[in-house]
Amino acid sequence: GGARLWGGRFAGGPAEALARLSVSVQFDWRLAPYDLAASRAHARVLARAGLFTNDELGRTLAALDDLEAACAAGLFRPTVEDEDVHTALERGLLERLGALGGKLRAGRSRNDQVATDLRLYLRDRARGIAARLVELADALVEQAERHLDTPAPGMTHLQHAQPVTFGHQLLAHVHPLLRDLDRLRDWDARAAVCPLGSGALAGSSLPLDPVRVARELGFASAAPNSIDAVSDRDFVAEFLFAAAMTGVHLSRLGEEVVLWTSQEFGWVELDDSFATGSSIMPQKKNADIAELARGKSGRLIGALVTVLTMLKGLPLAYDRDMQEDKEPAFDAVDTLDVVLPALAGMISTMTVRVDRLAAAAPVGYTLATEVADWLVRRGVPFREAHDATGQLVALCASRDCRLSEVSDDDLRAISPHLEPEVREVLSVRSALAARTTPGSTGPKAVADQWGDVADKLTDW
Ligand code: ARG
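That is the input. Now the predicted structure with arginine docked in place:
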């Protein structure tokens, strides 16, 4: 381990078992571009502080550029000897600059470095996730536009409840995604604080300029407390909450698609390119994307719990436990990066079976509420209206007929208020058309909602 960053006071190298436990470069190597960006800002600050000559600054910046290109091309790779990304990159500088490569470490610690790198990384990748979220929301919005007035059964407890428009149901999956987008934006504002300059925990005796560094790296401000700066992983936990919440939304959407594509529902047909088959049953067409979206929400929730549990007992400031923040954070990013595009493709290419939806919409006496509301408009207290309608449903169920198929005499026998005109409300179309209040499922209200949602999405 020739390139270790801390060998001076130690008699020998670390035990093999320690090195194997301690090494993080196999996963934190993806922070390299961010670590290099922070190194550039730090080099300039050291030069302004008079600690680097202009020539030294120029050579250091050139070496950082060269190292970055070598990393990107895969020509510079971490070795098993490199404890972490910071160690590996310092080795790269030493290879290029000799002793000068060891000057950049002045005034900084891996503690403020790694906290800075991880903020830069997550802020960057969160923008990509937001773009993928918009694409999924767009796919739902496009499907919704085709079904603003397509009748469908609305469900509670997975039982037929009241007719809805299918566009309304699809848009109901867009609003959670809009909240996820808001959450990421709110999160970013809190994550935009730069720890660099906090050193190990106490700041620096060198004349650094944390405010300038923060600005150069795209942060809104420099950390106001050096101890907090290296201790704080709220930005990781909060990012992981946002990711887990998104995971739950995707899981619920996935579960609905699994139901919708089942033989029993048959509401939706997936495009062949977004469905999978079976190795033994030639007829199978499965919604694996939807199931993986549902299944992978587990690891997103797990990542949040991992980080909160790791943090809860830690004294300030930095503890090595905190190295365990990275794999869950990276896994959450990677998971959303693969789930979101697959879901977006599946949704935008699926075919909605309007005939099946329309036929299912009135099944299960979903128009019973229309009868009760009709009685209410005639002055009958809802309690009585509910009871009379319940008797009507029971009668129909015993005869296996529709609500509208009961004779005038049978209606009157249930309640003197149940006059033949009640049949006017007993169609899915009229039930939907009657729902005009903002946010409700009638075609007119849904068209308004669709416009608002589409506007919001174009702002993202
Ligand atoms: N690999 C470490 C991490 O990810 C970097 C910071 C190490 N700091 C230290 N004092 N050992 O947290």
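The CA atoms of residues 433 and 442 lie 5 Å apart.
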